[in-house]
Every structure is written in C-alpha cells, then in structure tokens.
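User: Here's a chain of 166 residues. Predict its fold as tokens.
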Amino acid sequence: MKKKKDYEVIDNFLPEDKFKEIHNFCIHEMPWYYKCGTALRNGPDLFHFRHSFYEDNQIRSTSFDKIINPILDHPKFTYYGLLRAKGNLYTQTKEVFEHDNHIDFPIPHKGFLLYINTNNGFTILEDGTKIESVENRALFFNSGKKHRSTTCSDKHIRVNININYV
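Assistant: Prediction complete.
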C-alpha cells in the first residue's frame, strides 16, 4: 500500500498579475526586520530578515490585505484560523546553507509557503523531500513535522511567505 504524501506543491499558484504585485512589493518595497538566528540556532553568522503580517492573534502589518489576503482567498487554501503569517528573507551565502530541523508550533497545524523568487535554495521536509524555490510555487505541508529551510548561493536573496494555520 502506497503512503499518502504529506504535502502538495502547486506551481503558478496565484494569477500572474496578482503574483507580480506581491513579488514587486516583497522585493522592492516591504520593510524587512533583522532577526538573529534561524530555526533553533543562534550565532553571529545565522540571521535572516522577516516581516510579521500576523502574530499573537493580531494583524501586525499594514500590508496584510495586499500580501496575505490574496493567498487566503485562493480556493486551494482552506483554514479555520491563522497562527502566524510572515515573510522570510535570507541573504546570499557562498554555498547553500541548511538550517536546523524544526517544527513551527508544538500543536497540530498546517504550513504554507509561497516562494517569491526562483533561486537554488529549497525547503527540506521530514522525509528528506526537497522542494525547490521556484517563483509563484506554493507548498502546503505539515509544519508540525520537522522541516528546514536554506539560504541560496545564486541570487542576492531568497524570499518566501510563510503561513501557519489550522
């Protein structure tokens, strides 16, 4: 008996015009905030930038409607409640660096990633599956299971939108 996949990848997730609007805003206009550490590890060389759209049961960004609502309105996105919505920006490293395995929240929940730019970084799921960072690719997965992110080495930045939900 074949085991059911615990994730789904959808290319060209958003209509091109809507994705371009989100892409341009995330790359050229959105304010990004320095965050020391990645996943579970801290250190002077481990950092990324983030933008919090939704956290602690509150909208935290004036960009929520522009960036997050088009994702939540997509027919494939079904949810009862949000736990967190944020943007992640990783800067280029000499070689692709894999961050530590982690779970996003210690409760049953789901995860969603929208990859904003194509690069040689990826997401690694618990079973070892690598999901490549491809512009306008969506990943629905069980973020209550271990997974990890990476940097990229072929572009200046790697950007994605991360939503945790039930």
